[in-house]
């Protein structure tokens, strides 16, 4: 049994990974932006699933949630940095606030989450970090320029081991 910490657990790839991990008997610390999204899994898997609300634009909350997960679960073997936000539309139509939110979530939030986890990995003597990105980090299509550019910075590191 391993313990996993997964951000952005409310849908897509993360929800499939979480179900698979829980089915095989692993523990999962899952973070979501909207409370209640994982309640069906919680009722099915009980204490195997640890949940917390996490907004990656809130650096203080990132640090608090990561610390609480390690304190309550003891050890986390694998950190999956999955959370992201998609802003779609023409670049020139996006407001400064929307653009800042895009990069605060996908770039700075992701980086802050990794930085919050690394000291705990060092303290426990190791752990694995998996950085989820997107094919959109390697190409851009009309209407996705801002999202693609925010994913490019995440696409360079994929599976790193902290020691």
Distinct helical segment count:
5
Characterize the largest beta sheet: strand count, sense, and whether it forms a barrel: 6 strands, mixed
Shape: globular
> What proportion of the residues is helical, as a percent range?
40-55%
Write the element-wise H/E pattern from the N-terminal end onward: EHEHEHEHEHE
What does this structure look like?
By secondary structure, this protein is an alpha/beta fold. 44% of the residues lie in helices and 17% in strands. The protein has a 6-stranded mixed β-sheet with strand order 3-2-1-4-5-6, sandwiched between helices. Strand 4, helix 4 and strand 5 (127-131) form a beta-alpha-beta unit. The protein is globular.
In short:
The chain is an alpha/beta fold and 163 residues long. It has five helices and six strands.
């Amino acid at each position: 049994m391993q313990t996993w910490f997964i951000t952005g657990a409310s849908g897509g790839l993360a929800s499939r990974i979480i179900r698979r991990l829980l089915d095989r008997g692993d523990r999962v610390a899952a973070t979501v932006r909207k409370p209640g999204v994982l309640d069906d899994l919680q009722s099915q898997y009980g204490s195997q699933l640890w949940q917390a609300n996490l907004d990656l634009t809130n650096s203080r909350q990132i640090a608090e949630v990561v610390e609480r997960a390690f304190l309550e679960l003891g050890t986390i073997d694998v950190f999956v940095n999955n959370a992201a936000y998609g802003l779609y539309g023409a670049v020139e139509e996006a407001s400064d606030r929307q653009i800042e939110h895009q990069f605060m979530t996908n770039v700075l939030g992701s980086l802050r989450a990794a930085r919050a986890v690394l000291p705990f990995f060092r303290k426990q003597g190791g752990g694995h970090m998996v950085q989820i990105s997107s094919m959109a980090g390697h190409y851009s299509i009309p209407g996705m320029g801002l999202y693609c550019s925010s994913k490019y910075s995440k696409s360079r590191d994929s599976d790193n081991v902290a020691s």
